[in-house]
Amino acid sequence: MLAELNEELARLGLGMENLGDIDSQTISGAISTGTHGTGARLRNISAQVEGLELVLADGRVRHLSAATDPELLRAARVGIGALGAISAVTLRCVPAFNLLRVDAPIPREEVLDTFQERADAHDHFALFTFPYTDLALVLERNRTDRPARPRGRAAAYLNDVVLENWALGALSWTGKAMPRTIPSLARLAGRLASGSRTIDRSDRVFVNDRRVRFTEMEYGIPREHGPEAARRVVEWVRRNEYPVFFPIEMRVAAGDDALLSPSHERDTAYIAVHQYRGMEWRPYFEAVEAIMNEYGGRPHWGKRHFQTAATLAERYPAWEQFQRARDTLDPSSTFSNEYTERVLGP
User: Fold this and answer.
1) DSSP assignment of 16-80, as one string?
2) 196-201 sheet: strands from edge to edge
3) Is 162 exposed, middle or buried (0-12, 13-18, 19+ CB in 10 A)?
4) What's the mean pLDDT in 209-216?
5) Do residues 290 and 219 lie in contact, with contact meaning Cβ atoms separated by under 8 Å?
6) Strand pairing partners for 273?
7) Which of 47, 101, 73 is closest to 264 using CA atoms?
């Protein structure tokens, strides 16, 4: 698990240069699906892979590295489980570092108007916004040489558990039971999103405590179109009075060279939408996907989407290279399943 990896790296005085916002995945799952974190100058987690071992269908172990098999490694770094079972990973790590995290509520239009400048100004930049409010919670995280000054246990518990989980869960449950109250509940949640400031070990700042259950879709589109696409999602929700309480999340990542990375060869704005468990989500996600399609959107491989091999092939310049790698590493299609056949073809 990433959580265990982070603790072991910290013990060795090391860290990952970038992480996503949860640590309950395995490292193989995180890289295989293109998990990315945020940072205008930082690539996704798979770009930190220097080599890996794949157990093939016949039981042989194939060692892939940039020196010996550069093209196969570029395929396997975001392999969606279709090339073999990852048994070992060699990661490029960095000396341990601290991050200063500053959260602040800011009018959404102001944030979107200055989105590109804000993304460039910070090591890590993200925003959350409820469609029925006019505010965005902006998260800015930057490296610092200052010593860690984590929040006290009481303050951390109040913010991370009571506000971000219990309160969010209670408001979500109320919205599910009484959908007409969602706009008012969203405005209340927006007011509860107060500013905060903390300095701590990098992985502790990257990772959030997520206890409220939801389903999610996330798309990567060319970075320059991010603000426009986010506005269109908000507009669709409001115009259709769609009962969605969870916020829209927006982040950036640098382009990379993994063949099926959603950020392949382009700097990317990631837009994620969520729906509380048990609530209808398909019409909302279909509408969002239609918007993202107009920008050549590429789905996060570990989240919901409705794409097929026919719709995806044209969005990845190295699509055929990946298919050749698939034929080389899994010629008998042993690692194919219903999902891979839909998104990659038989």
Assistant:
1) -S---S---S-HHHHHHTT----BTT---GGGGEEEEEEE-TTS-EEEEETTT-HHHHHHHHT-T
2) 196-201, 98-107, 135-144, 124-129, 248-253, 268-276, 214-222, 298-299
3) exposed
4) 83
5) no
6) 217
7) 47
Q: Where are the alpha helices (DSSP H) in the chain?
A: 2-11, 27-32, 70-77, 108-113, 115-121, 153-156, 168-177, 182-192, 202-206, 226-240, 282-293, 309-312, 319-329, 338-344
Query: Is 173 a residue whose pLDDT tops 80?
Result: no
Instruction: State the residue for tokens 């080599």.
Output: 51
Q: Which amino acid is at 38?
A: T
**Residue 165 — pLDDT band, cuts 50, 70, 90?**
low
> Is pTM beyond 0.85 here?
yes
CA 261 from chain centre, in angstroms, equals: 12
All structural domains of the chain, each given as residue ranges with its CATH number in brackets, are 2-95+307-344 (3.30.465.10), 98-299 (3.40.462.10)
Beta partners for 63? 53
Give the pLDDT confidence of 251-281 residue by residue, as tens digits.
Answer: 999 999 999 999 999 999 999 999 999 999 9
SS3 per residue for 125-153 = EEEEECCCCCEEEEEEEEEECCCCECCCH
Q: What is the pLDDT of residue 254?
A: 97
Query: Are 258 and 46 spatial neighbours (Cβ–Cβ below 8 Å)?
Result: yes
**What values do phi and psi take at 301, rounded to 5?**
-70, -15
Give yes or no for residue 170 having a pLDDT over 90. Answer: no
Q: Max Cα separation, the chain? A: 59
Residue 37, token pair as written in the block: 């974190």
Task: Yes or no: say if 252 and 40 are a contact pair by the CB < 8 Å rule.
Answer: yes
